[in-house]
Design brief:
264 residues, alpha/beta, 6-stranded parallel beta sheet, two-stranded antiparallel sheet, 14 helices, WecB/TagA/CpsF family glycosyltransferase, hexosyltransferase activity, glycosyltransferase, transferase
Length: 264
């Protein structure tokens, strides 16, 4: 059983388009997620909500239902804008997976067995080596790259069980990774499971990170677009305005509902 429905009550949350998203600062998030990794029963799956996968969620009911079973952390300026429009304040921290997961591994001082699934084979190997250098007290197991079909998923799940993991990192991209985790990964595979998107690409040196000053300004998306304009143009320059449209529609719906309640 996924214990997030029981444990999440200990975490402050606010809704983004109806989806509960954790409302924690960095310190609170580290403490909370680290504690979840030590729970001896059940399982917690962590996903991240940003503007791109919020757009997907709003047109894919199966994906929304999947995220509702996960513990969701806020990622990026888009969800901050949605929170600002709905609640008058941004989230306390930008808990994007690219920064949060490596920092979480450093925060966890008790050694863990951490499995890795996803990315290209060579990128997976480099990412494992980078994680071993980053947090050498943990044991990292490169279980599988991300190039497997649906017909191999059940067998891969059995292989994951064999490694007796504490934590499983899955890097397949949204929404594939969240749906795959939801379909195949159970408590016997790992107590804590995190969908990490492109993290292995960043850690393995396949994709460069934006300079620190751009990350502080919250414009890493612009740096990424400059690196891969063809692939990311639609996401940022079509998906971005669409996301803003969802924010405005959500705000208008809220005010209309308030007005109807006042008049009834």
């Amino acid at each position: 059983m996924n214990i997030v429905s029981n444990m999440a009550v200990f975490s402050s949350q606010r809704e983004v388009f109806g989806l509960p998203v954790c409302d924690l600062d960095w310190s609170e998030a580290f403490s909370f997620v680290s504690a979840l990794a030590d729970v001896p029963i059940g399982q917690t799956v962590i996903s991240f909500l940003n503007a791109h996968n919020a757009n997907i969620m709003l047109k894919d009911p199966d994906y929304r239902e999947t995220l509702e079973r996960h513990l969701v952390l806020p990622d990026g300026i888009g969800v901050d804008l949605a929170s600002l429009a709905a609640f008058g304040k941004t989230f306390p921290a930008n808990l994007n997976g690219t920064d949060f997961v490596p920092a979480l591994l450093t925060y966890m001082t008790t050694p863990k067995r951490i499995g890795m699934v996803g990315a290209k084979p060579e990128v997976l190997r480099r990412a494992r080596a980078a994680f071993e250098a980053h947090a050498p007290w943990h044991e990292f197991i490169a279980v599988s790259d991300g190039y497997f079909g649906e017909e191999n998923s059940a067998e891969l799940a059995k292989e994951i069980t064999r490694h007796k993991l504490d934590i499983l990192l899955v890097a397949m991209g949204t929404p594939r990774q969240e749906k795959w985790i939801d379909r195949y990964i159970r408590p016997e595979h790992a107590r804590l499971v995190i969908g990490v998107g492109a993290l292995f690409d960043f850690v393995g040196g396949e994709v460069p990170r934006a300079p620190e000053h751009l990350r502080r300004l919250r414009v890493e998306w612009l740096f990424r677009f400059m690196q891969e304009p063809r692939r990311l143009a639609a996401r940022y320059f079509v998906g971005g305005p669409r996301f803003v449209g969802h924010i405005l529609a959500n705000r208008a719906s809220y005010h209309l509902g308030t007005l109807k309640r006042a008049l009834s």
